[in-house]
Amino acid sequence: MRNQPPAASAAAPKAALQSQHVSxxxxxxxxxxxxxxxxxxxxxxxxxxxxxxxxIESEGVLVGILSYRDLQDELLARxxxxxxxxxxxxxxxxxxxxxxxxxxxxxxxxxxxxxAAARLERLRVGCLPVVEQGEQGLRVVGLLTEMDxxxxxxxxx
Length: 157
What we know:
By secondary structure, the protein is an alpha+beta fold. A four-stranded mixed β-sheet has the order 1-2-3-4. It is built from seven helices and six strands, in the order H-H-E-H-E-E-H-H-E-H-E-E-H.
């Protein structure tokens, strides 16, 4: 039998998520890559900066998001000898934009954290780019991760 917290203790985190907005807790400092970055460059950047998600932009407009899991899956597939026989380039030759999650799910800065949490859960993703409409398309103004929501709900830093 698992230990379950008392029902009353769930009220405080829930209230925190309903009263705060995405803009209150989103990460404003994030790293973006361009369409031409290789998968190996993206992997090195993720490891160096200890990130699990990179947004991909073209001329300041969001075109996709690359997750660490997507990157791992693609790099492992490229190491398969069968893929090499079929002419698939090695990991160094693959370009990140070919493997991004195109038309990524996103959220507005004025959405509540409860809305963001529901969206992350429903979509089964760990990160949402926070976007505002720009002249050319969606412009990334921040990132919201599962950890950001946990920190907001439970007051950890």
